[in-house]
Amino acid sequence: MATTEIKTPPQPQMFRLGQSPMKRTKKAIWEWKIVRRALWDAFLKLNPRKMMGNPVMFVVEIGSVITTALLFKGGAAFKFNLQITLWLWFTVVFANFAEAMAEGRGKAQADTLRRARSETIANRLLGSDGRVEKIPSSKLRAGDLVIVSAGEFIPSDGDIIDGVASVDESAITGESAPVIRESGGDRSAVTGGTRVLSDQIKVKITSNPGETFLDRMIALVEGAERQKTPNEIALNILLAGLTIIFLLAVVTLQPFAIYSGSPQTVFVLVSLLVCLIPTTIGGLLSAIGIAGMDRLVQHNVLAMSGRAVEAAGDVNTLLLDKTGTITLGNRQASRFIPAPGVTEQELADAAQLSSLADETPEGRSIVVLAKEKYGLRGREFGSHEAHFVPFSAQTRMSGVDLNGFEVRKGAAEAIANYVVQGGGKIPSEVKATVDEIARSGGTPLVVAERGRGALGVIELKDIVKGGMRERFNQLRAIGIRTVMITGDNPLTAAAIAREAGVDDFLAQATPKDKMDLIKREQTEGKLVAMTGDGTNDAPALAQADVGVAMNTGTQAAKDEIVEIGKQLLMTRGALTTFSIANDVAKYFAIIPAMFAGTFPVLNALNIMHLQTPESAILSAVIFNALIIIALIPLALRGVKYRPMGAAILLRNNLWIYGVGGVIIPFIGIKLIDMVITRVGLA
Q1: DSSP annotation of 544
Q2: Largest CA distance in the chain
Q3: CA pair distance 431, 87, nearest whole angstrom
Q4: Which residue of 289, 602, 612, 613 is surrounded by the most CB atoms within 10 Å?
Q5: Is 360 helix (H, G, I), strand (E, B) or coil?
Q6: ∠ CA 142-144-145 to the nearest 5 degrees?
């Protein structure tokens, strides 16, 4: 959906586009179309120029090439050497397959989006006389007005300026249930390629061709090669350093082996090297990063860089605009306050009648509140001569005249004049209620009946979105402080902050106040995320460590950005821990197999009781390859995120992936050894 881009290249930033669906169709990990494409891509990625970007797997590929060349020269133990060579190649291919699977999931979504971007015919309005011309959607430009009726596809991104409709957004969000889109408020934005299921809407186009939501989503998953994030680069350097250390250790091991009378073949030495270097995380590292970006795309978030995703995972303070972020962004009727001698039911009935011709969001909310609270529904006037008075900015009133019965609803001053003209007056209790609501930051509307005077007051206020307190509690549990920013007076801001459950608030905030708050947090060593509309908040978004520019969406969407960032960091850390931990079992498998013949005392290290030296080495190499395939689902889906403190997360991951990374390889290598010896492969 429409978004305003902020030109601050040095700053990591994201764009939240569209409403976050409450339910999502989960994409299967092993979908055959994705697997088939990934298998082909895995072999294409064997190109050394591509492999050089992953130093760990590049070393494995070089080792595979060396063993392949030696295999063709012949020699003893051909069966063993052939199996070692094949499994070394499988290790490289499996790592490429993991990366290709992550890319394939994004490409599959791009294909779906491309189908949704198909050319449609738009009904463009010409002038103010209502004339319509049919043109291809590719010829629409920002500012054009189009009419979209039931059964038609919305031709491009835009905002509804008139009407309400049920819209099928499944092609974009994966959510099968239609959503309601209407003019005004935070549900007015619509996306090109979605389909109107009911009614008719007038849409103002907000994007030029090539700049739409679908175009940007497709470009994100199919653009230039993904740049590695700073953390990913740092981890790559660490893994490359470990690889060099183990390479030197293996190279210098052969002279000692010859001196001790146990010379080792190149096949065994390469097997040892491949098992010692961190191939598990080396093979999955790229897939983890790509999958993290893909999860954001599935939540309709465009991340301008991987660094933005990582920074979101490290955020300490989250600043949120009140309007449209914590609250719905348009005033809604919240309660009816009757005048003395009038029941609340009477007031609600009169308020609904007087709002039937009011097409503003506020007017519709009054009709809805009366229906939901008192069961009052639209009525059939039939033969009655009903004259509706629509709301206008000049009169600031709306109402209905029905068989001599007149009722009006509107601004306090306008209704006061209406009552005085009818020979009545506004009760002091109603005036007091109006003043009280105004002081608290709400908007009072007065309802009056001709000849009877004021019936009471309707309170309009910016409604806090559902689930806010629960979301903020989750953020608080993971150590993130939430601050609401608003232009309201301190009294109103405090009331909304208390209702929403934020940790702090900044009232009567100017752009300079926002900047000062962000700088103050940053000087204390905190990472700050800022959400805004992308225009008024541009300076603050640029100053923040993570700027989230949004047009529409729910608060859950912003929390998801933080959670996905944390999940990305957790997944990378968990699999790095597992990769390093599972090297322990490989030591106990390969070292005794290499030297136990010369140094029988090393048999004490064969705690897995592997059958033969050949089966021990082959089992370790096979496990080293298969574990990459086994961990692909975890790399793509990410470690399950739970809102808890960093210390608890670290402890849990050390137990699960540290201790588990030590135990699982012992079991796996032993099982593989039992299988290959039984079938006669070793």
Answers
A1: S
A2: 118
A3: 84
A4: 289
A5: coil
A6: 135
* SS3 call for 611: coil
Considering 122-136, 154-168, 264-278, 362-376, the range whose residues carry the highest mean pLDDT is 264-278
CB neighbours of 107 closer than 8 A, spacing ≥ 6? Answer: 37, 221, 222
Report how far residue 521's alpha carbon sits from residue 516's, in angstroms, rounded to the nearest whole number. 9
Per-residue confidence (pLDDT) for residue 269, from 0 to 100: 92
Instruction: Tell me the two tokens of residue 14.
Output: 């994201």
Q: What angle do CA 298, 299, 303 make, to 5 degrees?
A: 90
* Separation CA 576–CA 573 (nearest Å): 5
Alpha helices (H) along 444-510 = 468-477, 490-500
For the chain, what is the mean pLDDT?
Answer: 80
pTM over 0.85: no
* Per-residue pLDDT band at 4 (split at 50, 70, 90): very low
Residue 253 burial by Cβ neighbours in a 10 Å radius (0-12, 13-18, 19+): middle
**Burial tier of 256 (Cβ tally within 10 Å: 0-12, 13-18, 19+):** exposed
CA neighbor of 587 nearest in space, from 606, 613, 611, 609? 606
Residue 75 to residue 36: CA distance in whole angstroms: 37
Q: In sequence order, what DSSP letters do the residues of 447-460 get, joined into one string?
A: EEETTTEEEEEEEE
Cβ proximity of 379 and 355 under 8 Å:
no
Q: How many angstroms separate the Cα of 324 from the Cα of each of 139, 215, 379, 472, 661?
A: 32, 25, 33, 16, 46
> Are residues 625 and 91 in contact, defined by beta-carbon separation less than 8 angstroms?
yes
Question: Of 624, 152, 516, which is closest to residue 506 (Cα–Cα)?
Answer: 516
Give pLDDT tens digits for 62-109: 999 999 999 988 777 888 999 999 999 999 999 999 988 888 877 776
Q: 261 φ, ψ to 5°?
A: 85, 15
Q: How many CA atoms lie within 13 A of 402 on its CB side?
A: 17
